[in-house]
């Protein structure tokens, strides 16, 4: 049996049941997909779907055939519950982005929203490329550092979030090209802002507060250095 170690941050996210956990929130997701050519016939994969907020939105809004995968069992359970509650035919699978048990050339769109920093990027991008149909689109909202960090700073951030690596814009472009993607477009979101919808309850474990406090502390201390971009590209 393989035992997976999640960072305390990821574990806390799953316990808090935060609806959406990517910068820009669901409103940024909506704005991004408005520009894409999605129909009822589109097959869409949401990698690291978390509680399934985006997957549910895409199924409801476009009637698309949506699949979500996530590695964390609590996230998977929450996403499954959401689809059952809203009677949405979204398939949820527990799997790693680095090895996805789905067939080649199957999806018209694959999305990852604040996920790839947690994984081995070359491996995950190879999987994403394999799963996309020719001319399929990959869209990602991903953490992007604005400048190189000192070793100590990088260690603190990687350790806390359980990030595999910290990536600058040019590194992302190199990784996407290396995986075979074309027509790479990078955007900075300046207009849509989201406030995380945290649901603190009275009987919450004190450690969860501490972890979220640390998260907000890191965000404010590294405000200038930590950012994110929207990447879109084609197979
Ligand atoms: C910051 S959350 C974002 C969740 C969701 N995309 C959203 O925007 O709300 C990161 C998600 O990535 C998932 N994750 C982390 N490592 C993963 C991996 N190797 N394979 C699949 N999912 C992973 C976590 O379980 C978590 O649900």
Automatic annotation (TrEMBL):
GO terms for molecular function: methyltransferase activity. It comes from Lysinibacillus louembei. Residues 45-139 form the Methyltransferase type domain. GO terms for biological process: methylation. It is an enzyme of class 2 (transferase). This is Class I SAM-dependent methyltransferase. CDD domains: AdoMet_MTases (cd02440). Its EC number is 2.1.1.-. It comes from the Bacteria. Keywords: Methyltransferase, Transferase. Transmembrane segments: none annotated.
């Amino acid at each position: 049996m393989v035992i997976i170690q999640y960072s305390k941050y990821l574990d806390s996210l799953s316990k808090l049941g935060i609806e959406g956990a990517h910068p820009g929130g669901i409103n940024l997701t909506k704005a991004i997909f408005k520009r894409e050519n999605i129909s009822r016939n589109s097959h869409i994969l949401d990698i690291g779907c978390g509680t399934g907020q985006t997957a549910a939105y895409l199924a409801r809004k476009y009637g698309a055939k949506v699949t979500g995968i996530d590695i964390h069992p609590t996230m998977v359970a929450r996403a499954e519950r959401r689809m059952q509650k809203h009677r949405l035919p979204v398939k949820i699978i527990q799997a790693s982005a680095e090895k996805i048990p789905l067939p080649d050339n199957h999806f018209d769109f694959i999305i990852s929203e604040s996920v790839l920093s947690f994984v081995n990027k070359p491996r995950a991008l190879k999987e994403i490329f394999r799963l996309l149909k020719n001319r399929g689109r990959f869209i990602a909202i991903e953490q992007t550092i604005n400048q190189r960090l000192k070793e100590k700073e990088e260690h603190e951030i990687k350790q806390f979030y359980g990030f595999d690596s910290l990536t600058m814009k040019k590194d992302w472009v190199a990784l996407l090209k290396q995986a075979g993607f074309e027509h790479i477009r990078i955007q900075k979101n300046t207009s849509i802002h989201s406030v995380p919808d945290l649901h603190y309850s009275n009987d919450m474990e004190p450690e969860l507060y501490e972890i979220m406090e640390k998260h907000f502390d890191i965000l404010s201390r590294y405000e200038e250095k930590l950012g994110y971009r929207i990447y879109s590209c084609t197979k």
